[in-house]
Amino acid sequence: MRVAIVWGAVVGVLQALTPLAFWWLDAATVYALGLALIASIYIGFAVADGRVRVIVVECAVAAAFVLVAAAGVTGPAWLLAFGLAAHGVKDAWQQRSQFVSGTRWWPPFCASIDFVVALIIVIEILVGVHFHA
Fold first, then answer.
1. Across residues 27-35, what is the average pLDDT?
2. How many CB atoms lie within 10 A of CB 97?
3. Which among 45, 77, 97, 99 has the fewest CB atoms less than 10 Å away?
4. Is 71 exposed, middle or buried, given 0-12, 13-18 or 19+ CB atoms closer than 10 A?
5. Which residues contact 40 (CB under 8 A, 6 or more apart)?
6. Spatial separation of the C-alpha atoms in residues 40 and 34, rounded to whole Å
7. Coil, strand, or helix at residue 101?
8. Whether the predicted model's global pTM rises above the 0.85 cut
């Protein structure tokens, strides 16, 4: 799991840099798209798991994160930091509970990404970075 966590931190730093790659979009929009994408990955795991209850729950959870991401497009950047940190907590819960089967290394990898990006967003907020044009 240590390797997954380290690679997650590396990917988290790269994800935090994505607003630079999409310079024509507000940073909030780019981070929100990332949160929505991350949230939707568990739907694929749920479908692979095959249990209807798991699919329904993961779709509902993903929808909640998409709503937070959508609110973060025009709302305070704190929503995006919260959404990513909350998704990291969801990953930690998934690792512990194995609610969705077959995700062995994914939750610690994804949690590492989530927590790194959330922390970078918090730092950006505190130093006065503007997330909206």
1. 97
2. 9
3. 97
4. middle
5. 62, 66
6. 10
7. coil
8. yes
Let me know: does 39 contact 61? Beta carbons within 8 Å: yes
Structural contact between residues 39 and 88, judged by C-beta atoms closer than 8 angstroms: no
- Selection from 95, 94, 132, 89 nearest residue 114 by Cα: 89
Q: Catalogue the E-assigned strands of 1-133.
A: none
Residue 121 has phi, psi (to 5 degrees) of -65, -45
Q: In the numeric block, which tokens belong to residue 111?
A: 């949690």
3-state SS class at 18: helix
Mean per-residue pLDDT of the chain? 96
* Cβ-based neighbour number of residue 2 at 10 Å: 7
